[in-house]
């Protein structure tokens, strides 16, 4: 019998302790903090939980265990708690199980249930296809020394997209199993027709949904009072939103690398904020631009990829995060009993994801039939 990698056990123990602590902390928020009057008093009551959510992920060193935990707790979780302090956001007026799942997971429950569309039936198939594509990309890293740097960077871009979407989809399965109808987390960003469409309606919509109430709407209210209801009032809100997103990515990079920030990723988001603000102003100023989107899709994705290679990925490669992430796949393969066979690993992941999707669909069907 092959011995499991020694580094896996302590990492999983730390992960278990972190998430058990997070669950207990949210139980406190639901049972006690949420009953305190909104405002400064409730904010003070949740500050210890915000402290725990901020410090606990520092115990993790794994990229694939640490990055989602940092994202869910340090960013999404803390922002949701800040909104809860003022009786806003997804945690206000929420039942217990939904409160815990929404507070800990990258999900947003639908306010009004919608009938299933054809895209809902295609989504499990697309996820399985993307899982296979990710496995192919990981397998190609074995020949990285023979690949052109530009091709490697293109693979990294695809890897980030596929990896983030699949991780978010997998971690949303517990909520789906409970019968919670969820908003989409991604909406095929490669089909974006503009930067506004890419960032606002397609890419990582969980970040979009949390940045709107915490940053965009407050800044827009202030700028509207100063600048009036002109298109200029939107620019400060857009820039502030992208700036906060950039700073939170710097935080994630720091947690994973423990290296001092060099701010390239912040400038990446500031650049895109400027471009989105200019795009919105142009659409408002020039009639008909919004309808002429046929040729902008490729330009949009190309701009994201090129600027990502320039500003988003240097901190990743400089600190060796890419190498660590690639090496972890072999550790995961060894842990689940698949040694040096990415295709077999992909098959197992596809089967597990497919069975989980089937379980989720069955649970939803049962809940519908019982109601």
From TrEMBL:
Matches recorded under Pfam families: MBOAT_2 (PF13813)
Transmembrane segments: 12-33, 39-58, 89-107, 127-144, 150-173, 231-253, 265-282, 294-313
GO annotation terms (biological process): lipid metabolic process
Domain annotation Wax synthase: ranges: 183-270
ATP-binding found in the keyword field: no
Coiled coil: none
GO CC annotation: membrane
GO MF assignments: O-acyltransferase activity
Location within or outside the cell: Membrane
Entry keyword annotation includes Lipid metabolism: yes
Keywords: Acyltransferase, Lipid metabolism, Membrane, Transferase, Transmembrane, Transmembrane helix
Membrane topology: Multi-pass membrane protein
Family note: Belongs to the wax synthase family.
Protein's UniProt name: Long-chain-alcohol O-fatty-acyltransferase
């Amino acid at each position: 019998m092959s011995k499991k990698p020694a580094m896996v056990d302590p990492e999983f123990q730390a992960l278990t302790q972190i998430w058990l602590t997070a669950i207990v902390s949210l139980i406190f928020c639901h049972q006690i903090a949420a009953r305190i009057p909104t405002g400064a008093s409730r904010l003070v009551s949740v500050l210890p939980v915000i402290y725990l959510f901020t410090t606990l992920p520092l115990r993790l060193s794994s990229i694939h265990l640490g990055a989602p935990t940092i994202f869910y707790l340090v960013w999404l979780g803390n922002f949701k708690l800040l909104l809860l302090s003022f009786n806003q956001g997804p945690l206000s007026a929420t039942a217990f199980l939904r409160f815990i799942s929404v507070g800990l997971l990258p999900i947003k429950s639908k306010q009004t249930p919608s009938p299933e569309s054809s895209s809902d039936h295609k989504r499990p198939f697309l996820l399985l296809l993307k899982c296979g594509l990710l496995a192919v990309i990981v397998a190609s890293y074995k020949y990285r020394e023979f690949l052109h740097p530009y091709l490697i960077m293109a693979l990294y871009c695809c890897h980030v997209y596929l990896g983030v979407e699949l991780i978010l989809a997998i971690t949303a399965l517990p909520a789906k199993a409970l019968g919670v109808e969820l908003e989409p987390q991604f909406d095929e960003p490669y089909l974006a027709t503009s930067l506004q469409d890419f960032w606002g309606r397609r890419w990582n919509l969980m970040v979009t949904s949390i940045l709107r109430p915490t940053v965009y709407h407050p800044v827009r209210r202030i700028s509207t009072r100063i600048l009036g209801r002109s298109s200029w009032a939107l620019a400060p809100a857009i820039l502030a939103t992208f700036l906060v997103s950039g700073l939170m990515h710097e935080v994630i990079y720091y947690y994973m690398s423990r290296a001092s920030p060099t701010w390239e990723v912040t400038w990446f988001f500031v650049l895109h904020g400027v471009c989105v603000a200019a795009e919105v102003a142009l659409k408002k100023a020039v009639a008909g631009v919004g309808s002429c989107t046929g040729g902008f899709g490729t330009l949009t994705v190309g701009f994201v990829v090129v600027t990502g290679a320039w500003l988003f990925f240097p901190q990743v490669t400089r600190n060796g995060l890419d190498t660590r992430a690639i090496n972890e796949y072999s550790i995961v393969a060894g842990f689940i009993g698949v040694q040096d066979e990415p295709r077999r690993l992909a098959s197992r992941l596809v089967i597990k994801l497919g069975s989980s999707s089937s379980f989720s669909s069955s649970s939803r069907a049962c809940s519908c039939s019982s109601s």
